[in-house]
Amino acid sequence: MGHFLVDTCPLWVSYYFFIIMAFQQIDFSKTLTDELVYESIMENYSDLSKEWIFHQWNWMNTVYWAFKDHYKYLIVISLVEKTLQFYDQMSIQYSFDEYYSKSYLQIEKFSILEICEKLKLPKETVRRKVLELEKLGVLKRQKKQIIIDRSAFNLIKPDNQIKFTSKYIYLVSLGLNNNNNYSLKLNPKLIENIIRKRFSLCWRWFYRMQVPLVIGYDNFMQDLSTFHIWGTVCMNQVLNASKELDINAAPLDHWKTSKIIIDNVGSNIGLSAMSISDMTDIPRPTVVRKCKYLLKQDYLKINDKKQYELSSLNFKKVLPYQKEVFWYKAKFIRKILNLLVIS
Q: Which of 8, 47, 197, 225 is most exposed by smallest CB count within 10 Å?
């Protein structure tokens, strides 16, 4: 026994010495805070607004396309996020390829009430959607296990979403570089590689940003399809308004950029109900019905071509809510950028 201790103690000492040295090598002066990232987003908004709204519009399409139902997908990813949290707590990490190598994902046990609290949805709605997911074969109970069967639905791997997310993080990093708040010089591919390499961790952070945002969208419009349609019109308007921004000029902050969008500069081209339906895959009759509500609430207006545009009066109501969105963004981006510092 004595001989065993003499041989193994140096190995343990070496191991702990390595861990201590690894921590000592982290230069915490190079890491970011939520506040620094938030302020950079606000100050450089004209350089970021187009990419962000396209990022979120693509995400909303992903949420809808899997089941043609926003809420079913929200339930699935909330269960996935819970499992990713367990992986993180156990220091288990999977790359993108490892994570999607299996056709099913075992998840932790859950209760209807737990999902209701997390998604801020009525119990009857969650219970009905869970039963529908079980009928579709997406959620299955195998003895004491609960699994998500990926082969039972139109799985959308986030290949494009990772690219969009990496590009947006890169653009935020440029603003931080310019203010000397972040020393690493990045490119989108480098960011994409770290997300793919440490996918289970990074995508847990991604879901922790997106799920509260989508819940906020639901509260804002009382319905996710309604917000999805409004957001599509908003994206069209932002893309048109961004043409009025001088890319060679100094970046504009959130409020000045928003004023350009609110004033409808360069955005006299709206979207028809058919165009919105084609872009989102939401049935045209649903689009027409939801747009009637948005017109009544003065969230949209209709032009002479029977196209939908933003209403400047009510678009202003969105701006305070956007500040909350930016904080969720800042937390997520700060984690990714700091991960790059220590990797």
A: 8
